[in-house]
Amino acid sequence: MARDAQDVLIVGGGHNGLVCAAYLAGAGLKVRVLERRGIVGGAAVTEEFHPGFRNSVASYTVSLLNPRVIADLRLAAHGLRVVERPYSNFLPLPDGRAFRLGGEHGTAEVAKWSPRDAERLPEYYAMLDRVVVVLRQLMLETPPNVSDGFVLADWMASLTVARRLKSLDMRGRRDLLDLFAKSAGELLDAWFESEPLKAALGWDSVVGNFASPYTPGSAYVLLHHVFGEVNGKQGAWGHAIGGMGAISDAIAAECAARGVVVDTDAEVAEVLVEQGRAVGVALADGRMLRARVVASSLNPKLLYTRLVARKHLDDDTAERIARYRCGSGTFRMNVALSELPDFSAAPGTTLQPHHQSGILVGPSLRYFEQAYFDARSREHNAGWARAPIVELVISSTLDASLAPPGAHVASLFCQHVNPDVDGGWDAHRDTVARLMIDTVDAQAPNFRASVLGYEALSPLDLERRFGLVGGDIFHGSLGLDQLFAARPLLGQGNYRGALPGLYLCGSGTHPGGGVTGLPGRNAAREIARDLGRRMSG
To answer: What pTM was computed for the model?
Structure first.
């Protein structure tokens, strides 16, 4: 082995790659991270997008970052501070009213729309809590390495899952099955009658998911977003002071403290394979680096179609990776504002609590469904919703460091657009960006005039910049055939890749996407075990 060989080379310096590196270094291994861009963090970065304005460019809100990761990697000691939203969601509605959910706006607010829903909402949250407490534990564990036919019943009967399911009574197990198999729309329609409430709760089922809320299995996407917590409060959402890059910076600081070498501007061109084993990587600049093992935090489709030569994969793996479902309905914007939005449903440009919440333009599940149908069918344009769904988060209302005094920055997380539009995204990016701005302006008539500048990221831009294939923020759809032991493929659900010496440590592995750090943590545990080390934490 070459003199400068590492124990582990990690391809991709996104947050999961950094988490994996930190844990492995803590186990006494020599680790080197290779990041294509000039900064680490992957999609969890803070960058200037307009002179004087910075924002969380891609991922933009905090909830799913696992508390074990926060504690083990001393992220608070490295400066990470997360502040909570005053409440979860503000929905300006077409009739001029507004719906608020979370914080002080609990059952009394819901009762204004439906006394029946107000009575059922605590029961709904209790149902989710019963299921989530079990799944939170499963998120920390390595799935069994299933290599034969696999269905949901096999997953639930596996020893790992069965051990956790013992804490659920029959009602809880039925709820779990509903959340895995049903659509979010079907589930929410059975629970509630108020359209704004169902929209506020159902938004999570279409976030980054190019599907209707009535698509079977979309209830799990909804569930995936309620795993998290902020400052010990489960289900809460917050903002990292300094933006999402503060998370990546804190993890990188712990990596440095543990002796990890991090190379930026180090694009990997190929995984080196000798005698059927991954032994290192070739960089785009011609350098070759060797290691005992290689771990990739990239989307598995990107890894296997661009970095691993086809000749090294068996036919079944190659064919299934080609069919691995990636693609998001997301159009992401960062917007510099001269003043706060003046909503018709809640007038005023002076800071109010609704400005600090998740502002959702999208009044109903049917509205969400139509947005998807428009984008999928391309019947009315090249491939986007005529009336899109927009979540607006004005980060600077919680973090003044992101914008000049008196000005603000906003994240627009927009659905639905087709990952592949007629004529290509470069031809349509600005047209769709104007549509998203106009969609907000219809609810806050000063919005368009307050825009000083913006950055628009189509699915293609998200792929080019961050390696999110098809704009997929999860590194692969969260369908039953791409979860747990089947993520990304059966036989690779335990973080061990298609070749000996090759591991996967990104969001394309269990437990999936979001800024959790858990794929990196779990993968590190398996790598350390295979290299004869014990991972602490």
So the answer is: 0.95
